[in-house]
Amino acid sequence: AETVASGSRAAALGGFTAVHAMANTDPVADTAGVVEQVLNLGLAAGYCDVRPVGAVTVGLEGRRLAELGAMADSAAAVRVFSDDGRCVSDAVLMRRALEYVKAFDGVVAQHAQEPRLTEEAQMNEGAVSGVLGMRGWPAVAEEAIIARDCLLAAHVGSRLHVCHVSTAGSVELIRWAKRKGYGVTAEVTPHHLLLTDELAATYDPIYKVNPPLRTAEDVEALRGGLADGTIDCVATDHAPHPTEDKECEWAAAAMGMLGLETALGVVQHAMVDTGLLGWADVADRMSARPARIGRLSEHGRQLEVGAPANVALVDPTASRTVDPTTSASLSRNTPYRGMELPGAVVATFLRGRATVLDGKLQ
């Protein structure tokens, strides 16, 4: 329930000058033609640079590799490949993908989820799922894939990026891989830095997400991992859904949350206002490092004469109450509705041109 244009407007309001659009588009971004179309739609919208993520497998089906080389050689110059919310669970296929992207300095961004351990799972496996009687999603389903893929990346000598890390065990595995010198990077979402599985007790599907909200102990570990650099960056995992797919019974609801317009406020609340990060660290985790991972040379740079003016101006002393009806997204599934979040994006500039001024789209 989003277009490239509406998503890029939401991104600009959130202070983003570039975003990576995942491959779960319609049609799937698994060919050079589709990724070029995504790129062109972003250019036409003009609010931020929209860099397409290429699918690892044809149709995101996990059976055979997509046209990785053709997408890399296309006008979109794709360097990030992912099957979005579907894990490349076949170890042989994952190895081949890592081998292929190594030739052009690409990276495979893996959604770590062993599918056989999460069949019919509805939320985090733990005390809360036991009380609610919901099928649990064990932490090991994520951690097993991360461990496997870190070893595969080391064996191949290629780059691996772990999407939306959600467990304390995952943080430890990534910390181990980095100590070994493996080419592994990782991200965490704003919602996994703030929300816990206890919210499932409301039975409100707005809190149903993949990977699921975890425990308070996991949240603490994720914050610590982002603070010490084990986790490289923050990524929104922006997942807009139609109202009918979220305002229904929990078991039937789609997984996912909006994230672009609230990301900075959540990070300020969870990391800056708690003393875990300074604002220079926020710029590093939300701009410089993501740009390096995605090979976006015009973004995430130091402010200096002659550099591309891709800049967000933030007022950390401001605050706002989240109202989903005012969102630029075509969807309304934010878990922060009615919550007061600190900070405000005052202006966003894309190559020196204002896309947002005084908090309003231009």
Structure description:
The protein is α/β, with parallel strands linked by helices. The protein has one domain: TIM Barrel (Alpha-Beta Barrel). Helices cover 33% and strands 16% of the residues. The strands form 4 sheets. It has a 5-stranded parallel sheet with strand order 3-4-7-8-9. Strands 10-11-12-13 form a 4-stranded antiparallel sheet, with helices on one face. Strands 1-2 form a two-stranded parallel sheet.
Q: Secondary-structure map with pairings?
A:
Elements: H1 4-13, E1 18-21, H2 32-45, E2 49-52, H3 68-73, E3 80-81, H4 91-102, E4 107-110, E5 123-124, H5 127-132, E6 136-137, H6 139-156, E7 159-162, H7 168-179, E8 184-188, H8 216-228, E9 233-234, H9 243-246, H10 263-272, H11 279-294, E10 311-321, E11 340-350, E12 353-357, E13 360-361
Parallel strand pairs: 1-2, 3-4, 4-7, 5-6, 7-8, 8-9
Antiparallel strand pairs: 10-11, 11-12, 12-13
Helix pairs in contact: 1-2, 4-6, 6-7, 7-8
